[in-house]
């Protein structure tokens, strides 16, 4: 029996910055990034230059930047927040990105995800920090094809690739 109609691929590395702080830090980051950081968990904003800020909680964001650019962004954010209580950390090595796409990708993902990913409640553009196959992930529903970008701790990269391949195999 043929497997699900999906594509699974490991994506190129990106830079990731863990940003934490109160409203003043959020405001300083928002001004530097030229986008208002959200305060509602499981939301995201995209900047004009391709950065993505995932809101983990009202005072915690994960900022995805181009690989190799993270230290420049981190230094600039530090300068803009010098007199403000905050914690900004380069966590680029912590995350790996995996993309799951294709007409049956939702069916594959539903086998291991711990949230409802039906488009009525999780439409394109949505994001959530949740579990997949007993691992902590950040899921981003990129588009209606459907395409999902999955952030997983880098030490679980191969495990997640293998699990997705197994789930896509249809036994």
The helix count comes to: 4
Order of helices and strands: EEHEEEHEEHEEEH
Total beta strands: 10
Q: How does the major sheet shape up?
A: 5 strands, antiparallel
Helix proportion of residues, in percent?
A: 10-25%
- pLDDT below 50 for ≥5 consecutive residues: which ranges? none
Assembly of the depicted chains: single chain
Strand content: 35-45%
What global shape is seen? elongated
State mean pLDDT (0 to 100 scale): 96
Helix/sheet category = alpha+beta
Query: Measured on Cα atoms, how large is the radius of gyration?
Result: 17 Å
How far apart are the termini?
A: 7 Å
The main sheet orders its strands as: 1-7-10-9-8
Give an account of the 3D structure.
- This protein has 171 residues and is α+β, with helices and mostly antiparallel strands.
- It contains 4 helices and 10 strands; from the N terminus they run ββαβββαββαβββα.
- 23% of the residues lie in helices and 36% in strands.
- The strands form 2 sheets. The chain has a 5-stranded antiparallel sheet. A 5-stranded antiparallel sheet has the order 3-4-5-2-6, with helices on one face.
- Strand 9 (135-143) and strand 10 form a beta hairpin.
- The longest helix has 12 residues, at 157-168.
């Amino acid at each position: 029996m043929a497997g699900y109609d999906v594509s699974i691929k490991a994506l190129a590395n990106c830079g990731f910055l863990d940003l934490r702080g109160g409203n003043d830090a959020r405001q300083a980051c928002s001004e530097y990034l030229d986008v208002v950081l959200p305060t509602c968990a499981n939301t995201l904003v995209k900047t004009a230059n391709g950065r993505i800020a995932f809101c983990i909680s009202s005072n915690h964001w994960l900022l995805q930047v181009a690989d190799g650019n993270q230290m420049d962004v981190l230094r600039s954010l530090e300068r803009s927040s010098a007199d403000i209580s905050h914690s900004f950390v380069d966590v680029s090595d912590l995350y790996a990105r995996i993309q799951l796409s294709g007409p049956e990708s939702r069916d594959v993902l539903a086998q291991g995800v711990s949230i409802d990913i039906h488009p009525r409640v999780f439409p394109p553009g949505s994001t959530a920090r949740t579990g997949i196959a007993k691992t902590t992930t950040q899921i981003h529903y990129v588009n209606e094809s459907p395409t999902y970008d999955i952030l997983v701790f880098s030490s679980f990269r191969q495990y997640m690739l293998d699990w997705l391949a197994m789930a896509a195999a249809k036994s």
